[in-house]
Every structure is written in C-alpha cells, then in structure tokens.
C-alpha cells in the first residue's frame, strides 16, 4: 500500500534558508495556518505535510528542504562505512573528519529537520480545531514526528535549541539558545510515550504504534535504559512483523512485512522522488559518486555478510576498482534481479527504510545484554539467530558485544545506522582513531558532534554557540 500522495502546503513556507525564515511575517493575501486549520480534513493535510518535510525535495537548490535525502552524508560518510569516490568537494570533508562550520550539507540537514519540527508544531498548535475522535491520533502522530526529528538532531549536534511550540520572530532566545541535551531527550521520551499511547496499526509510510515503540526503544538504548527498551522490543516482536526470507526483497519489494516505517518515494515524479540513490552511482547522479563503500566495510561484509553481501555492495560497473552501495539501486541490475524504480534514476522511487524488524531483533539482543559484554540468554539467541539464519551464517551459542556490533554492521550496512551504533556501543573513539590513522584522516573526539552551522550562529547575533573543536 502506497503512502497518501505528499502535499506541499503553501502556508507552511517550505523553501527556507534558515531556521528564522519560517518566523517571517505572513503575507496578507496568502492562506496561513491561523486561517486554514479549521477541521479534521484540513489538519490531516498538515499531518501529511510533516512527512513531506522528512521526504524532502528532489532538487539542487540550497534553500530547499531536502529532509532525509542528504542524511547519508552526515552519518554513513562520516563513519568507516562509506566515502566519496573522488575525495573532493564539501562531501569529502565527511570522509576526512574535517567538517567546516560553513559546510552547506550540514546547514541543509540542520534547517531541514528544524523545519520538520516546525511542521509538527503547526499541527500541535491547531489541535483545538480537531474533533474529539481525531485529536488523540493527530497529537500522537505529530509528537512522533517531532521526536524523530529531535532524536536525529540531538545525536548529531549535541545541545541544541528546543522549540516545542510555534514561535514568533521576537522569540529569538528560544530559537537560538542551546539547551542541555538531557532536556531534549526529556521531550523526545515524553512525545514518544504519547505516540505509543495514541497510535494504532497505521501504514508503513506513516507513524504507527509499533514504529513509536521501536523508536522509543532506540532512544532508551541511547540513554542506557535497557529494561525499558527490552519491553518495547518485545511488544514490537509480538505485533506481526516478520523477516523477509530473501534479503533483497526488503529493499525491492516495497511495503513488505519487515518494514515498520519507511519514507515513501514515487519514481518519475518531480516532487515525490529522490535523487540520493543516483548519487551513489558512477555517471548516473549529478556527482561523480558519493557514498562509495570503504575497503573496511567491504572486507567486513565479505567476512560477515553471508548471503547479504551481494545485495549490500557491488563493483562499480564503470570503474571496477570501486564499490557501490547495492541496497537502493535506482536504475536496476539484471545480475542481481533488480528492476529500475523509474525511467530516470535521478527521479528514483526507492523508498527509504527508517525502521525494520531486523533492527528491532538486534535491539532486543542489545537490551538483554545491557551493560554486560556477553549474553547466552535463550530469547536473545533466538532473535539473533533468526537474522544469522537468513544470512546463511553459522548460528551463535553466545553473543559478545563486539559480535552484536559486527552483526548490526553487516545487517544494517548503509542504512545510516553505523555512526549512531558505534557511539551508543562506546566504540566510536577506538574505531575512528584506527580508521583515521589507516587512511591518513584527521579524526579527533570532537568530531563525534557536527558543527553548529555558521550561518545560524551569524543569524543569532551571538546567542547560538559553537561545538568544541570548530
């Protein structure tokens, strides 16, 4: 089942160049939020518009909201999984751990996700116009989206401004004052608890109770609340999701029973397609190749991937010394039995999976292990070995923390998980120090956070501070 077609609402002010743009005076002749949201059907368009913000625009304009379409650069390409092909340009700053505060990709991601927060706050601000029947679900869905946006922002930038309502142009301190990340996590947890309580089965392209439970479980793991995460994982494990028998089908049989939540794209559609998967290929996207697989990741997949490996990376068809991500190929691959998702790869229809059942199974193992370095718990072994069996890998009789981290790398490679996994497992400094030394990069511990965009600091007139090391 496809997601409801994404709507772009004129009153939201989608094209933004900074967090302050959406605070600009409203045009007197246009539809505004104050005059528009008067009933359930109109509030629903605001709900759908939140997902449009995450989906982002398939464009090259620097002022557009690109949502999730550039997330691979601030996650995978900063990790030991992927890099640029050429080692040139702004993207190469992520390869070498030398990201500049003026990096346009970082600024794009920051403002795009604050725009998602704004869209969620618009819905929450207008719940008074909702019917009694729909108000709880609208609130739950908006808080789920807001929590998701803040979870990404706080993990990438650390202490950040916390905007939990629609604000006006004079409220500069709210917009530009960084708060302790503990306060951000407090809002995330509160929002997701509301989402869990208020959501139902949903569809894979929209928030659901299981998606909220899975996301909250990952938040609790990040906070070290293992027992709370374990129960949430158990709830999702009892909700009817299953592993696809063929690993390829996760990514090319869209809407399958393993997908808990995905951002849906429609191929050959200028507004609802994506271009990131084309950028990962040589001479197909607009660049010469991004998100190319590192030697280290290829070696890990060759050793640990089993039957997953050929659907995780492949040789560059033009330059066979290079390796490309194979999970989201937009123009098809006859050798892998993959069909194109559009007539034009830069208008790709490959959905982006944010949460799937295999991730929940591995989170259950992580929650069961807790602060220990190994587990032989029977239920954890069952969950772990389901994934190993699908990959045609030997079954485990015990699981160490390192083996779990390795399994997550093999199973979830190139799905924007590796960066966060290494930090959550406390392994980032060790891994990146060695990776940097082996490749002549410049990693230091301050690189675990991105810089606050310099443009935002300039707009704040001194209120917004920079992260250490930048």
From TrEMBL:
<feature type="domain" description="SusD-like N-terminal">
    <location>
        <begin position="65"/>
        <end position="221"/>
    </location>
</feature>
<keyword id="KW-0472">Membrane</keyword>
<dbReference type="GO" id="GO:0009279">
    <property type="term" value="C:cell outer membrane"/>
</dbReference>
<dbReference type="InterPro" id="IPR033985">
    <property type="entry name" value="SusD-like_N"/>
</dbReference>
<dbReference type="InterPro" id="IPR011990">
    <property type="entry name" value="TPR-like_helical_dom_sf"/>
</dbReference>
<dbReference type="Pfam" id="PF14322">
    <property type="entry name" value="SusD-like_3"/>
</dbReference>
<dbReference type="Pfam" id="PF07980">
    <property type="entry name" value="SusD_RagB"/>
</dbReference>
<dbReference type="InterPro" id="IPR012944">
    <property type="entry name" value="SusD_RagB_dom"/>
</dbReference>
<keyword id="KW-0732">Signal</keyword>
<comment type="similarity">
    <text>Belongs to the SusD family.</text>
</comment>
<protein>
    <submittedName>
        <fullName>Starch-binding associating with outer membrane</fullName>
    </submittedName>
</protein>
<keyword id="KW-0998">Cell outer membrane</keyword>
<feature type="signal peptide">
    <location>
        <begin position="1"/>
        <end position="20"/>
    </location>
</feature>
<feature type="domain" description="RagB/SusD">
    <location>
        <begin position="340"/>
        <end position="470"/>
    </location>
</feature>
């Amino acid at each position: 089942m496809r997601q409801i077609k994404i709507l772009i609402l004129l009153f939201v002010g989608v094209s933004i160049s900074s967090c302050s743009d959406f605070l600009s005076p409203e045009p007197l002749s246009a539809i505004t939020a104050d005059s528009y949201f008067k009933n359930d059907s109109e509030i629903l368009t605001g709900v759908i518009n939140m997902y449009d913000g995450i989906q982002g625009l398939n464009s090259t304009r620097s002022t557009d909201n690109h949502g999730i379409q550039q997330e691979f650069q601030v996650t995978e390409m900063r990790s030991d999984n992927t890099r640029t092909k050429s080692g040139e340009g702004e993207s190469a700053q992520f390869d070498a751990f030398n990201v500049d505060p003026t990096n346009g990709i970082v600024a794009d991601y920051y403002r795009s996700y604050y725009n998602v927060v704004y869209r969620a706050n618009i819905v929450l601000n207008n719940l008074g116009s909702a019917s009694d029947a729909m108000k709880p679900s609208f609130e739950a869905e908006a808080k789920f989206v807001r929590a998701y946006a803040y979870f990404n922002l706080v993990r990438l930038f650390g202490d950040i401004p916390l905007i939990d309502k629609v604000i006006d142009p004079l409220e500069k301190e709210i917009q530009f004052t960084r708060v302790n990340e503990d306060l951000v996590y407090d809002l995330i947890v509160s929002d997701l608890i509301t989402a869990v309580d208020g959501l139902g089965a949903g569809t894979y392209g929209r928030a659901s109770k299981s998606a909220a439970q899975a996301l909250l479980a990952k938040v609790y793991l990040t906070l070290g609340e293992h027992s709370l995460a374990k129960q949430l994982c158990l709830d999702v494990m009892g909700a009817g999701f299953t592993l696809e028998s063929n690993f390829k089908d996760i990514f090319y049989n869209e809407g399958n029973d393993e997908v808990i939540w995905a951002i849906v794209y429609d191929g050959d559609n200028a507004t609802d397609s994506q271009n990131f998967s084309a950028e990962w290929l040589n001479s197909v996207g607009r660049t010469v190749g991004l998100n190319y697989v590192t030697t280290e990741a290829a070696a890990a997949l060759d050793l640990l991937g089993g039957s997953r490996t050929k659907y995780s990376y492949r040789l560059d068809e033009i330059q066979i010394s290079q390796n490309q991500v194979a999970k989201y190929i937009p123009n098809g691959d006859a050798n892998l039995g993959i069909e194109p998702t559009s007539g034009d790869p830069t208008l790709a229809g490959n959905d982006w999976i944010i949460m799937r059942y295999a991730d929940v199974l591995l989170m259950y193992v992580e929650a069961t292990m807790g602060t220990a370095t190994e587990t032989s718990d029977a239920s954890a072994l069952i969950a772990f070995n389901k994934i190993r069996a699908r990959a045609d890998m030997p079954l485990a009789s015990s699981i160490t923390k390192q083996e779990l981290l390795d399994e997550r790398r093999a199973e979830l490679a190139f799905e924007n998980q590796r960066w966060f996994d290494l930090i959550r497992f406390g392994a980032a400094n060790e891994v990146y120090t060695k990776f940097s030394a082996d490749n002549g990069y410049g990693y230091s511990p301050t690189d675990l956070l991105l810089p606050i965009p310099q443009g935002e600091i300039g707009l704040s007139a001194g209120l917004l501070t920079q992260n250490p090391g930048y």
